[in-house]
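Entry 14. Ran structure prediction on the chain below.
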Amino acid sequence: MEEARAGGEGCATIEYVVTPDYQLHDVVTLDASNRFFAREAKAAILKWQWQQLPAGLLTEPVKLQTRFEFCLETVEGRCDPEQLNARTQCRGDDMLPAVGYRVLVRS
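Output, structure tokens:
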């Protein structure tokens, strides 16, 4: 929230292992434009409902990476996936954009 209020944008790439019983292990930050984005990306991964996946999809642990792109949209469409990929500071092809909008509040 602090970064969004300040107009901050950035990224974080999280690597993690999912076991056949859908437990998470070895959740680590590979890249992050700052510690706030890293913290929130890790928290998002841990909140995902892995146990709701059908039983038997995994027969062995799988190492995955997810890149989160935190972007504040403007009328120019700067949160378009192609634009995010062009200016990211984080590695990874599995990208999940988290898009927000600036709202001007007048009192």
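The longest strand covers residues 62-73. Will compare against last week's run tomorrow.
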